[in-house]
Amino acid sequence: MALKWYTVVVDCHDPQAQAHWWAEALDWQVVYDTPDEAVAIPKGMGDGPAADLAEWMERGQGLVFVPVPEGKTVKNRLHIDLAPHTSQDRDAEIARLLDLGATHADVGQSEDGTWTVLADPEGNEFCVLSSRDR
Fold first, then answer.
1. How much is the pLDDT for 75?
2. Residue 125: closest CA among 66, 77, 62, 91
3. Are 62 and 6 in contact, with CB atoms under 8 Å apart?
4. pLDDT attached to residue 55
5. Exposure string (b/e) for 23-37, b if CB count within 10 Å is 16 or more?
6. In what order do the strands lie in the sheet with 28-34?
7. How remote is the C-alpha of 100 from its chain's centroid?
8. Rounded CA gap, 123 and 103, in Å?
9. Residue 83 in contact with residue 134, Cβ under 8 Å?
10. Distance set, CA 53 to CA 3, 23, 59, 93 (Å)
11. First-to-last C-alpha distance (Å) of the chain
């Protein structure tokens, strides 16, 4: 028996703003929003009980945002990779994320990489990979 990867938890100053930013960036939905926690999940995933183990295991992961008093000081040790489908315009997706408030980030990547490093509004790095279909 395997455990299910359920969520990634992100420490931040403003959980509500972060959850809504990521929901907009990923076309997800915010399903829980309190001062102590905000949760974003893929649209259509459903936030009710799963009918059985198979349905439970097939559901995607969510993002949980919780408040912390300290600020981010170093490069993330874990980050999210986003990838556009080959039918999408990768540069347009990067521009859309920048318009939403992402910024370019330098984590020491080479200039000839096939990915672009960005940071969310609180400075958490993530990558936009090359287009792919798997």
1. 85
2. 77
3. yes
4. 87
5. bebbebbbbeeeeee
6. 7-12, 62-67, 37-42, 28-34
7. 13
8. 8
9. no
10. 11, 26, 10, 35
11. 26
pLDDT (tens digit per residue) in 34-71: 999 999 999 988 778 888 888 888 888 999 999 999 98
Q: What is the largest CA-CA distance in the chain?
A: 48
How far are the Cα atoms of 5, 6, 54, 59 from residue 2, in angstroms, in the given order?
A: 9, 12, 12, 14
The Cα-based distances of 56 to 41, 50, 52 in angstroms read 14, 5, 6
Instruction: Supply 22's token pair.
Output: 């990521």
Token pair, residue 72, equals 């981010």
10: number of Cβ within 10 Å: 22
Percentage of the chain beyond pLDDT 70 is 99
Of 54, 76, 60, the residue nearest 126 (C-alpha): 76
